[in-house]
Amino acid sequence: MKHVRLLVLTEDLPQASLALADMESFHPDTRPPAESRLDGLPAREYREVFTQASARLEKIAKLIPNEETPYIEEVRVVDFAELQGLNDWLGKVWNETSSYEEDLRRLEDEERLVKEQQAALANFADLNIDLGMLHSKMRFLDFYVGLVPRENLRQLQGAVGLADHILHVYMQEGENAHVVIVGPTGSKEAQLSAVLDAAGFQNLPIPQGLDRNPAELGRDLDAQRLAIAAQRKTLQETLKRWSEPFEGPLLEARRTLMLAEPLVGLDPSIRSAGYLAYLAGWVPARSVERLGARLRESLNHPFQMTVRNPAAEERALVPTVPAESWVLTPFAMLVRQYGVPEYGEVDPTPLFAVTFILMFGSMFGDIGQGAVIALAAWLLRRKLGRFWPFGLMAGLSSMVFGVLFGSLFGVEHLLPALWMSPLSDPLLMMRIALGWGVVFLTLACLLGIYNRLVIRNWSGAVFGHHGIINLIFYLALITGGFNIANAGAFGAVPAGLVIATLAALAWHSWRRQQAPAGEKVLVVVIETLETLIGYVSNTLSFLRVAAFSLNHVALSIAIFTLADMMGAFGHVVTVILGNLFVIVLEGGIVMIQVMRLQYFEGFSRYFSGNGHEFAPLRYRRG
Q1: Where are the beta strands (DSSP E) in 119-186?
Q2: Are 46 and 267 in contact (CB under 8 A)?
Q3: Per DSSP, what are the bridge partners of residue 40?
Q4: Which of 53, 110, 118, 141 is deepest in the core (most CB within 10 A)?
Q5: At 137, which CATH number?
Q6: Looking at the structure, do residues 32 and 87 belong to the same domain, yes or no?
Q7: If we measure between CA atoms, which residue out of 424, 356, 434, 366 comes closest to residue 395?
Q8: 37 falls in which pLDDT band (50, 70, 90)?
Q9: Does 403 map to a domain?
Q10: Is 303 within the bounds of a domain?
């Protein structure tokens, strides 16, 4: 990545922005220039007019939609005068269009009010009395209308009777009963209120608009909604006839704004001093020469382009170019869930793709089920978008391991295994999983060391978490464990390396602690134990690779055992549903487990995720 600094004449800024956008290789650097004289903001007024015009066009488009997509056939400069004229025209169109918006909003408000009244009326639909009587208490009678849980209904009826009131259930819905309670006013009113609270009674307020019989009100509200719908249809037809002459000009307006957008995107990074304008950005090294040629071809006046490498202190500002391969794109999307690699940091996407596919296939090895996943990804590629290659490769990997395991839809006696069934030697599968974990963790540590060396963090590369000393300790520990398993002894060399590396880590931890001696000792002991336990537990985490490959076979056996207990038809149905269950449920669980291994055992060792993506200036062509 290169830092490119441009000095152009201010009048050439619009043409320069179009050239940069067309190349799609210029990521603006918004930092102000070092020259104090370059403090003007030449594109600020342009941006303000553009923002206002875009807002007006979007509001108009809500009422005058145009499904046709504008396409830029010829790139041209949109100067300030043209943009200002377009903004003024859009303002006039919006002033005329807004009257229709106000009428439509008025109809929406009226319809919303009717809907609210209908929703309220639904609570009283079975109450065949004049609702106007229930708005307020009468002189000698109290009215209570509301809901009460059905399990409390019988007790409430008895308690209401003791208070000289009558309870009438006029509707039961779900777990609640709709009731009306009527009784004389008097001294027992306070007693009844306490009873209602204890029974979980919820009062249903009656809106002021509901002052007649529910059935009659329902018919009137339905008629109001039909009238509103008819008014809306008429208004929309009138709007459509009125707006037809504007459809072409509005499409052209959108195209003009698309051409003006690159200069607006550059605005935060542009500074000027009179006739001279400054802008800077980050450009991939392979694109610098082509960018210079394009500017020489496009600009009417001379310009200056200065190119340099990023400075060490600028590393956090340099964007990272994402993976562009259609194969790696879905994996890059998953990597971005963790973060974006910093500039100079190893992009984990290729390693992530390879290890993810290998682990998924080994944990979910079956020819038939893998073929279903791959076929589903292919058939749903339009809905899955750029993610469909992920499903295709996961399915193909499952098929490859299915050939090695000899598994076809869970059946292991139809095809001979190219290698073996996981269940035939579980201990071997576990040893392979541990070996895979050792290789994976070692590679992750090496990448972490490389990333620290790139930024000249020598201390972190040697003594840091998962640095060189940690890696030597881990490999010595693994070697000693291997020796115990095969020869019964840890070995002098591995033991010496383990002791030496732990001592080195303890010494480094002691030196950087700023605390009393007792506290230092405690921290050193805890960090040393954490290093020992952490590497052991991280390695054992990869046993899940073997566990799920065994679980896959065991689950298939369980499905066929259950199917054999059925008749012929039941056998077929059980096998089909069982395989669907395995594909959906176990497939999802396996994917989660692989993601966990990648994120926590891999990325945490070598991937900071603190970068930001390369977002070049570009204009929309359609």
Answers
A1: 141-149, 166-173, 176-184
A2: yes
A3: 272
A4: 53
A5: 3.30.70.2750
A6: yes
A7: 366
A8: low
A9: no
A10: yes
Q: Which of 284, 317, 350 is the last residue before a domain boundary?
A: 317
Do residues 590 and 364 lie in contact, with contact meaning Cβ atoms separated by under 8 Å?
Answer: yes
**pLDDT single digits (tens) 217-258:** 778 888 988 999 999 999 989 988 998 898 889 989 988 898
For residue 388, the surrounding DSSP H or E stretch is helix 388-405
List the structure tokens of 390.
């992920």
Which structure tokens are listed for 221?
Answer: 């509200």
Residue 35 has pLDDT above 70, yes or no: no
**Single-letter residue type at 89:** W
Q: Do residues 305 and 37 make contact, with C-beta atoms less than 8 angstroms apart?
A: no
Q: Is 75 helix (H, G, I), strand (E, B) or coil?
A: coil
Q: What is the largest CA-CA distance in the chain?
A: 101
Judge contact between 523 and 341, C-beta under 8 A: no
Indicate whether 82 pLDDT > 70.
Answer: yes
What whole-number distance in Å separates Cα of residue 205 and Cα of residue 221?
A: 19
Q: How many residues are given for the chain?
A: 622
DSSP state string for 331-385: HHHHHHTT-BPPTTSPP-HHHHHHHHHHHHHHHS--HHHHHHHHHHHHHTHHHHG
Which H or E run includes 219?
helix 214-243
The DSSP H or E segment spanning 271 is strand 271-273
* CA distance linking residue 85 with residue 79, whole number of Å: 10
Domain boundary among 210, 228, 250: 210
Q: Which of 243-257, 261-275, 433-447 has the lowest mean pLDDT?
A: 261-275
Written as one letter, the residue type at 300 is N
- Measuring CA to CA, how many Å separate 310 from each of 8, 30, 271, 306, 424? 22, 15, 21, 12, 56
Same domain for 203 and 247? no
Question: d(Cα 79, Cα 56) in Å, to the nearest integer?
Answer: 19
Is residue 378 in some structural domain? no
Whether 87 and 146 map to the same domain: the answer is no
Element holding 202 (H helix, E strand): strand 202-203
pTM of the shown model = 0.73
* Residue 385 is assigned to a structural domain of this protein: no
Split into its structural domains, the chain has a count of: 2
* C-alpha–C-alpha distance, residues 399 and 446, integer Å: 31
Mean pLDDT of 615-620: 84
Determine the Cα–Cα distance for residues 131 and 180; give it in Å rounded to an integer.
Answer: 12
- Poorest-pLDDT segment among 76-90, 119-133, 134-148, 182-196: 119-133
What gap in Å lies between CA 164 and CA 141, rounded to an integer?
Answer: 11
Domain containing residue 187: 131-210
Residue 371 CA to residue 583 CA, distance in Å, equals: 11
**Distance (Å, whole) CA 65 – CA 236:** 12
